[in-house]
Amino acid sequence: QVQLQESGPGLVKPSQTLSLTCTISGASIATTNYYWSWIRQPPGKGLEWIGHISDLGKPYYSPSLKSRTSISRDTSKNQFTLQLSSVTPEDTAVYYCGRMATVYWGQGTQVAVSS
């Protein structure tokens, strides 16, 4: 059974970089045709796709966040990470990691951007 767990700080100051890690169990991050995603849900708003990383390690980003986003992976740890730079209070959200087009998603982690 595939399980994913997000980890990272729950509070980030404005202008700093938000860093989250997703740890995968029950599947290899490098499995062919498995794509791994980050999405978020701000308070009172819908889900927003941030980006994903392919089975070959190529990242894809939402155009609206591309200039501030970096997604990478560590195959030895079966993890992938999200870095979002120059954060503002509008980046406050619950952040989720998961495998694209499947039911396999983490429980989410709340991140607040505040001084």
Question: Any overview of this molecule?
Answer:
The protein has 115 residues and is an all-beta fold. The chain contains no helices and ten strands. The protein has strands at residues 3-7, 11-12, 18-25, 36-41, 48-53, 59-61, 69-74, 79-84, 93-99, 109-113. A hairpin with a 4-residue loop joins β7 and β8.
Give the helix/strand layout.
Elements lengths: L2 E5 L3 E2 L5 E8 L10 E6 L6 E6 L5 E3 L7 E6 L4 E6 L8 E7 L9 E5 L2
Q: Helix proportion of residues, in percent?
A: under 10%
Q: What percent strand?
A: over 45%
Number of helices: 0
Biggest pleated-sheet summary: 6 strands, mixed
Widest β-sheet, arrangement of strands = 2-10-9-4-5-6
The SSE string, one letter per element, is EEEEEEEEEE
Distance between the termini: 39 Å
- Rg computed from alpha carbons, rounded to a whole number of angstroms: 13 Å
Rounded mean pLDDT is 97
Q: Structural class per helix/strand content?
A: mainly beta
